Amino acid sequence: MDVLETSRLGVKAEPEKTERNSASAPQAPESTQLRAILNLLATVVQQPTSAATSDAFVNALATQHDLSRVSLGWVVGRRVQVQTISHTIRFERRSDLVQSITRAMEECVDQRTTLLHTTHDVADRSQQILRQHATLAERSGADSVCSIPLTNDDGVYGVLTLERSGAKPLDTATATECEVALQMAGPYTHLLWREQRWLGGRAFDAVRRSLRSLLRPGRDGRKIAAVLLVAALAFVFLGKGNYRVSGRAYLEGLTQRAAVAPFDGYIGAATVRPGDLVEAGTVLCTLDRRELELELQQFSSEHEQLIKRKQRARAEGDAAQLRVLSAQLDQTKARRALVEYHLSQTEISSPIAGVVVSGDLSQAIGAPCARGDVLFQVAPLDQYRVVLEVDERDVAQLRQQQHGTLALAAFPGESLPFEVFSITPVSVPRDGRNFFRIEAQLTTTELDRLRPGMEGIGKVEIGPRRHIWIWTHDIVDWLRVRVWSWMP
After folding, report:
1. End-to-end Cα distance, the chain
2. Contact 89, 5 (CB under 8 A)
């Protein structure tokens, strides 16, 4: 059973008050119709919302033309949606009566013309299909049912369905008056309904109108632009690309050897600078020998004196003095041996063949150095490792044995392949961000032009990913962290 909740107050168009001297003057039918339509428009435009406008429109029509029910529906996609029923606050769209009204409206949309069904009409309507209108009349008990389409250049976008019960059926004149009222008030009512819909509905409607305009003949430029746009969107959202993690990279020698100061002293001379190629045993620098030579002469003199004193004590038979002098003699021998060892270490030699990567002492001649100070670093020329500094947001994507390419600033047109072999778990802060040290091994044999310390950009191959993910995952991950931090 269909249930419609009716309102207590219907909207009636009040006739305008005329002057007393013209009250008895007869008025033409056209003037009366025009006055009624103007009153209806005035009632419609005074309403604040789309729902109130539609209600005022159908209630006024029902009151002016003595109609039992007036329904207004809008075309949404390929279906008709009943928007308003006269003198009704709420209605269930799935009810049998509303479904019958909807099917009658869709019958009018399909034929794109005014359809009038009445049990009193004897006119020939063999060219019109009125099956759904007859079904509606039978279900609602109406003697006449009329549907009027509201059209524009895109086709039918609204339907007004009129129902009347009683001895007086709907005639062509009444349908024409309602059609004129619909053509004048309908576009405004539909525009207000369309603008007050939720955002998704308005967006869908705009897309649908744009597609309809593109399907019309002509407008080749817009069609080409639309095809290119669709192709670009398909490439972004459906296409896949090779995702790579990139970071600052530089070369290091796989095994770097250090040349350190063997004792406290002073720089005497420097023969090499960073970047020089050296062989194993090449003298890198020499330490000042003068102080050591003086110490050696001192200890030699003390040694000779102790020998003479020891001989005198042996001749005198002084056993106690002999033991003391023997101990002092051993001490002097040891100190002299240490000085001789330091003298043999004054020439700092390269431990391996390679290139000097650090240690410029040409401006530090005569400067002091302490025991254990690193004076030079030498790296081999045939073994390198690539060190990448990867942002902490991307380090989770990396695994050992992944492959990548290195582009050095010295050779921007070439790429060197490498393979990841170590991911250090310690981060290094820089510029307000944390970076992890990733070590990789070069897999190329062309190492002649490479030098330790060369910098560039390294990219590690991760695998195929969608383009939209590659370009947006950084900001999406950042938003996730931010939202999580804001949540209680």
Report:
1. 50
2. yes
Alpha helices in 238-284 (DSSP H): none
CA nearest neighbour of 451 among 405, 409, 389: 409
Q: Which residues pair with 429 in a beta bridge?
A: 434
Cα separations in angstroms, 169 against 133, 177, 255: 14, 15, 105
**pLDDT at position 237 over 50:** yes
- Predicted confidence band of residue 10 (pLDDT cuts 50, 70, 90): very low
The answer to whether the beta carbons of residues 124 and 147 sit under 8 Å apart is no
Rounded to whole angstroms, the Cα distance separating 147 from 483 reads 53
Q: In whole angstroms, what is the distance from residue 185 CA to residue 287 CA?
A: 105
Report in angstroms the alpha-carbon separations of 62 from 13, 30, 48, 94.
10, 20, 21, 24
198 exposure class (CB count in 10 Å sphere: 0-12, 13-18, 19+): exposed
Q: Which pLDDT does position 204 carry in this prediction?
A: 67
pLDDT tens string 254-277: 788 888 998 888 988 888 888 888
Say if CB 381 and CB 354 are below 8 A apart.
Answer: yes
Q: How far apart are CA 336 and CA 372, in angstroms?
A: 22
- Is 82 in a helix, a strand, or coil? strand
Report which DSSP code applies to 445: S
Report the distance separating Cα 254 and Cα 380, nearest Å. 8
Contact predicate 355/276, CB 8 Å: yes
Report the candidate in 85, 86, 140, 145 with the shortest Cα–Cα distance to residue 115: 145
Helix (H) or strand (E) holding 390: strand 384-391
Bridge partners for 251 per DSSP: 386
**Alpha-carbon gap, residue 101 to 85, rounded angstroms:** 10
Instruction: Identify the residue whose tokens are 């009204």.
Output: 101
Q: Which residues pair with 79 in a beta bridge?
A: 76
Amino acid at 332: T
Q: Would you tell me how many other CB atoms lie within 10 Å of the CB of residue 41?
A: 17
